[in-house]
Amino acid sequence: MEKKPFYLNTPIKLAESEMIRVRGRHSVIDGCLAFDWTNSGFSFVFVGTGFIISLGSYVADSPAYVRITVDGNKTQRFAVTNGNEKLIIEGLTDKRHRVDVLKVTEGDIQLKFDTLTLLGNGATLRKPPLNSPRRIEFIGDSITCGYGVLGLSTDPTFFTYQQDGTYSYAYLTAEKFGADARFIAISGKGIVCNCNGDRTDVKGGQYYQYLTRKGGVCDDGWVADVVVINLGTNDSGGPAPDDEFSLAAKDLVSKVRARYPEAQIIWMYGLMSNLYAEILRKTVREINKTDKKVHFLFAESIFGNETEIGANGHPNVRASIRASALLYKKIRAVTGWRNKVNVDEE
Questions:
Q1: Is 80 exceeded by the pLDDT of residue 72?
Q2: Are residues 234 and 300 in the same domain?
Q3: Which of 4, 62, 143, 299 has the largest count of CB atoms under 10 Å?
Q4: Do residues 169 and 121 share a domain?
Q5: What dihedral do alpha carbons 177, 21, 215, 248 form, nearest 10°?
């Protein structure tokens, strides 16, 4: 059998190319696209047989994982431990391909993407994928990050290989609508205190405004049609008093409303705790007196159903699918969205 020739093209700087569609809040560090939020990354369209992505340096306690999707298929998940790795997809049919590259684990150390090298004779980038006309923003904690979603109920501890944000209820919901989405979520955090009861730790109302998980201000002009808040689970670590919790919830909703005057806002709660269910219902009813576009959605707990529990007592993929179906129905009801929107290159 005749062996096909291997063509290696000139590396393309990702941060400098207009043919790259960036997904999520990000920054540029050392000339690289840098991401720390779960499910943030970039998309591109090319004609060729494969590609190589080179990274910037990376130093962290645990590996970060990158999910690469080609033509709608979740082709490969790569572990990154030091940034010397190459993310390689090869052997594709020599034709047009749509590629999505997402950091699917969380962490305060930003993962840097440096260059893209296309494979194939005459391989070339095409115009980038269109943005979806629908936009959803998720604000949350470990549940939204997909923490432990790939683990087993018998796994008492957490490792990053058990996390994949593309299997979280949030990502699955956005995918059903064909919506562009952002995931502003940090494990262990609350709106009054964290899971250990620490009130000095960063809170949802703070990091919601951040450009990165460590700070900065996000003012890139991205506007959401729907905002889903899934916070309050970790506040039971205090526990936070009802009145203080309600004030913090109102504060976060007011910040979301200031950023997105027309968005539908849904506070989803219950998958890992029901402690604040009634106070959240009451709080949303109070907000509704002046803002009819704020809603509460209760999701039944995973506890009592062993088949829905992943690593360290968190929702697994089965639970994500159930929660996504519930949220999908709610978003349909408040927006009128119906069939999935399919977007192609410009």
A1: yes
A2: yes
A3: 143
A4: no
A5: -20
